[in-house]
Amino acid sequence: MATLRHEFYETDDKLTLSIFDRNADPTKVSIQFEPRKFTYTHGEHSLVLEPLKGQIDPDGSDYTVGKVKVEVRLIKRVQGRWGALIGDSPDPLTAPIMAAATSDSKPAVRKPGKNWDGISTKILEAEKEKSTEEDPNVGGDSTLNGFFQKIFKDADEDTKRAMMKSYSESGGTTLSTNWDEVGKGKVEVKPPAGSEWKKWN
Predict the structure, then answer these.
(1) Model confidence over 83-99: pLDDT tens digits?
(2) Cα distances (angstroms) measured from residue 20 to each of 7, 27, 33, 51, 184
């Protein structure tokens, strides 16, 4: 039988195993869950993992068959990271429990938890949008465009002509409201400092 390529990732409460068996027929896939053993067979392909690094819950574990891979979800009986699929580490559910408590030991003191509601309220208040009176840079380009639109709307015909001519002839690098200056000739392109103007065809 051919062994299949596989990989896994895990959380504290479950391990997700991906078995790469392309075009596996769900009716012919056989999977067996045991507390410390996992078996997958599909025709000539098989994968046996034994002993598992920790115990799984056979009733809670399940799988789905896809076109490229079979995804298996192994539910752990004891929370924690395994780090590997198989291993000979002692099974925490069958290992003897050591009595660590002594007569002079102090009771465990629990720290007070974080007030997550208070923290999220504080963050939301900090992220609340400011008005343009509080910060003139609020809104970025949309505020600036609104400002220019207001100037254009309230302007006389010469100012509107100057704005249109200066903006279009300079490639968007200059905006002037002085028609006496703009009307004399072509408006030069003035790129920002450190930039170079290139004409695109």
Answers:
(1) 888 887 665 565 555 44
(2) 9, 17, 18, 21, 74
* Cα end-to-end span (Å), the chain: 64
What is the residue whose two structure tokens read 């695109």? Answer: 200
- The tokens 């920002």 sit on which residue? 192
Does the bond joining 51 to the residue before it have cis omega, within 30 degrees of 0? yes
Q: For the beta carbon of residue 162, count every other beta carbon within 10 angstroms.
A: 22
Are 44 and 50 in contact by the 8 Å Cβ rule? The answer is no
Please name the residues in contact with 62: beta carbons below 8 A apart, sequence gap of 6 or more.
72, 73
Provide the β-strand partners of residue 17: 8, 72
This prediction's pTM: 0.46
